[in-house]
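note to self — DONT lose this again. spent like an hour looking for the file last time. sequence + predicted structure for the chain T wanted, 418 res
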Amino acid sequence: MQGENDTPGTPLKILYFDQHFGTPKGSTGSRSYEFSKALLAADHDVTLVCGDYQRAALNLPNVEGKGWNRGTIDGIDVISLPLPYSNQSSLLSRSFTFLRFAWRAVTIAMTFRYDLVFASSTPLTVALPGIAARLMRGKPFVFEVRDLWPELPRALGVRNPALIGGMSVLEWVAYRAASACVGLSPGIVEGIQRRSTPGKSIALIPNCSDLDIFRPGRREDLHLQGIHEGDFVAAFTGAHGVANGLDVVIDAATTLKARGCDQVKIVFVGDGKEKPKLVSLAQARGLSNCLFFDPMPRERLAPLIGSVNCGLMILKNVPAFYRGTSPNKFFDYISAGIPVVNNYPGWLAEMILESDCGVVVKPDDPAGLASALETLYANPVECHRMGGNARFLAETKFSRTDHAGRLVCFLEDVHAGC
């Protein structure tokens, strides 16, 4: 199977699908933006197709007669389909948006000129244009898997047999149709291997640290209402959803209040379906040590994270999460040089312990979480030392530049081998 460019080293035309694409100016992850920039730096052309994610802040001009917005963002040719998405919408509404995006993406995959399709989930339906490109046009298709479906929805209580069955079939087809796959965590790679063809080329490329954006900062630069000099600030950044299990943090804050530890403040930055409930719960308990803020663009979020005392890596106690997630916030925290307080087992917990860059507490243990924060507050020298270890881990193992280079080489090798 040969693409339009057959000469080794010839620039490739890559069609990149990521429904939730964002840049550092938005308040969502920028993995696809950074990887697209790396592909451009290697002289490849990138057309990225995305949806209308409310936090992406793309602001692209409308293309008359096409039914999409299109423009160039830092050299990346971006097509934004006007299909608004919010994680606060109902499951039915989100599923309909996913299917509409997939249908239009398939049309693009069947009509555009390109050498390789790179599709990044979630949602799982983003694989459909890649499957169409591979089976109907003979193009190489690389599938990037950020979450295992349907394993995670099932673990979180989704019981609709038609939905679970449909996702299971689509997952099986996507893994087998793909020329190669990228997994973001060891558990994801293992999941792909279980359901794919033997010998499938699968690269482990986790989320990464943007070392030039998230850097150690100065506490005096932290200007948030409710934070005072001498306070110890723990930050949770990202989605406030069912999967995050943030009730345990509210319970830990309740324990801290009962213990009279008023200097430990917990800052929540983000949004999600559970946020109104969390805010109400904190207000009902009189938790002045819990402060809630709206999502922030990464350019604003970075100095905040660099100025707090530690980052909270919190998830619901679901075994599928232990090796099957690669949360952006973890890599932002370590890049900013702050210790990480983690509350679930798995590959990240093991890494925190091995690198001595934070504290691991048991799942569903608010008292243990409260004690971990108290201990860090009472030991500023130890806290600072762990933060230094965190930054070292980010620099030596999770540099965005290094992993973006690995992805570029992987895509080039896949195309050369097809």
